[in-house]
Every structure is written in C-alpha cells, then in structure tokens.
C-alpha cells in the first residue's frame, strides 16, 4: 500500500476480522456496508487489511466464501479515509482482491475468484484486475490474471 501524501510504501497483513474490530467499523463512522451482519453469516470469512504491525487501524475489508472450486467475493470495501481523491492510502482494493486470488490458489483452485459487480464498475474491474465479464454482472478472475495480482501485491514469483 502506498501513502498518497509521502509516496512511501508499507507492507500489509490480512487478518481475520474480529468482533472487537467492529466497534470502529460502523455506518456512523463512514463504512457503507453492514460488516456486523456480514461477519455473523456462517458461510462467510471476513478479513481486514492492515499495515504490518498496526492491526487496530483497518484499511479495508473483504468477505469471502469457499465454493469448493473457486472463491466467491461477496463484499469489498476500503476504509472511509481511503476513498475518493483525498484518500490516505492507494492499493487497498487490489491488495484485498489479490488476497482472495492467493487464497484460491492455496486451496488448489488456481487463483480463480468470482464476484458480482455494479454496472458502472465492470469496465474498471476488467482494466485494473484483468477480470472477465461473464454477463448479468457476474465477473471472474482466471488463473493468468490472478497470478499477476498475486505477484504484484505479494511479491511472489
């Protein structure tokens, strides 16, 4: 992740979201999704992106389900301070999507993930993530694009 003011890059870690984290992740504090209800769903695994060594400041969140042949991405959200032009850090969504691809690869699914996109973001996801639009808002990231994301965000070969 890169600080937009200083240009410095920071190593990140992705950890399971805890109930204690939810105290600061509310609509009142600027988050758009209801993460409290998301974490309560049995079929969802919710993770937080943080700067390494600073696990209490959540930079972004992602909700995933293992579909037994790929990972499905339900929700992804950058922290309110990482949205728009005055954002503090760049690279939050890409980092989280790369994590989903890595999780898929680690499970033997070759990095494949799928998700449902808002209409206005389909072109953006095709361009920035290498996602393929399957129709009806459904998108998939295939192994080649997944590998590029994993390499970019996790410095692996």
Helix content: 25-40%
Q: What is the β-strand count?
A: 9
Content-based structural category: alpha+beta
Give the overall average pLDDT: 94
The stretches of 5 or more residues where confidence is low (pLDDT under 50) are none
Radius of gyration computed on alpha carbons: 15 Å
How does CATH name the architecture? 3-Layer(aba) Sandwich
Question: What fraction of residues sit in β-strands?
Answer: 25-35%
The level 1 CATH classification is Alpha Beta
Please give the domain count: 1
CATH superfamily: Gcn5-related N-acetyltransferase (GNAT)
How can the largest sheet be summarized?
Answer: 7 strands, mixed
Q: In CATH terms, what is the fold-level topology?
A: Aminopeptidase
Q: Terminal Cα separation, in Å?
A: 19 Å
H/E element string? EEHEEEEHEHEEH
Shape: globular
> Biggest sheet: strands side by side, in what order?
2-3-4-5-7-9-8
Alpha plus pi helix count:
4
3D structure, described in words:
26% of the residues lie in helices and 27% in strands. It has 157 residues and is α+β, with helices and mostly antiparallel strands. The radius of gyration is 15 Å and the shape is globular. The two termini are 19 Å apart. The strands form two sheets. It has a seven-stranded mixed sheet with strand order 2-3-4-5-7-9-8. Strands 1-6 form a two-stranded antiparallel sheet. The chain has one domain (2-154): Aminopeptidase, CATH 3.40.630.
């Amino acid at each position: 992740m890169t600080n937009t003011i200083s240009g410095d890059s920071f190593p990140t870690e992705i950890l399971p979201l805890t109930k204690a984290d939810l105290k600061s992740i509310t609509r009142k504090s600027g988050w758009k999704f209801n993460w409290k209800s998301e974490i309560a769903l049995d079929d969802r695994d919710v993770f937080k992106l943080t700067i390494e060594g600073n696990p209490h400041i959540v930079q972004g969140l992602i909700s995933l389900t293992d579909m037994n042949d790929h990972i499905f991405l339900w929700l992804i959200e950058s922290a309110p301070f990482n949205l728009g032009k005055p954002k503090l850090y760049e690279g939050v969504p890409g980092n989280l999507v790369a994590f989903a691809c890595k999780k898929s690869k680690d499970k033997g699914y070759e990095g494949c993930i799928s998700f449902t996109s808002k209409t206005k973001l389909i072109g953006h996801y095709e361009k920035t993530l290498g996602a393929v639009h399957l129709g009806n808002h459904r998108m998939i990231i295939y192994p080649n694009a997944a590998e590029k994301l994993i390499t970019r965000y996790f410095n692996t070969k």
